[in-house]
Structure prediction request, 164 residues.
Amino acid sequence: MIRPLGADDAPAYGEFCRALDREDLRLRLGRYVVVEDSCIRRMLAGEGDEVVLAEHGPEGEIVGVSRLVLAAEPEIAVIVRPGWKRRGIGAALVEALVATARARRLPMLHAYVLAENVAMLALARRLGFRAVQAAGTMVTLELPLGAAAARAGDAALQSGGATR
Ligand SMILES: CC(C)(COP(=O)(O)OP(=O)(O)OC[C@H]1O[C@@H](n2cnc3c(N)ncnc32)[C@H](O)[C@@H]1OP(=O)(O)O)[C@@H](O)C(=O)NCCC(=O)NCCS
Prediction:
């Protein structure tokens, strides 16, 4: 089940953070981090952000979390628990937040992904994100929404490009 993260999820969220793979965390955050209680509290607070989780089983084990950072350039990121990858969880979480972004009438979503991160680049492209910049180790992807999406579609048609 995919649902918003709530304050009651703190224990399960802490357990999820501690179960994450060190390399996965580096790919998600861009640097090595030590998961501490203070860091978990900060991530849980995430003021203003929209956060969804995927849970499994009667104990409500968290198997994936995605965050929509509501900054000037709204940004999406996601991480899936080891042992739960390639089951569609990451894509389902990002799709849920794309729907949230549409409901909030955001014009555009961004994702900032390390160039080495083939899994996230493939996932994002599959959901319609397009790479607009590759600077050094980082790739910037964009997903136009609403009117911006319509304009992007028109431009693709006019240039004879694919509109899939
Ligand atoms: C990136 C990540 C979130 C993908 O989660 P996931 O649940 O395994 O992804 P999904 O099962 O939803 O995959 C959806 C599609 O993405 C692509 N994809 C996912 N993992 C892939 C991989 N390792 N290699 C190539 N393509 C991959 C595929 O097209 C896949 O569809 P398919 O399985 O039908 O071929 C996960 O690998 C992860 O947590 N990585 C570490 C954290 C991270 O890099 N976060 C992104 C930072 S912005």
Notes: Helices lie at 10-19, 22-29, 37-45, 89-103, 118-126, 146-158. The longest helix spans residues 89-103. Strands lie at 2-4, 50-56, 61-69, 75-80, 108-114, 130-135, 138-144. The chain is about 40% helix and 25% strand.
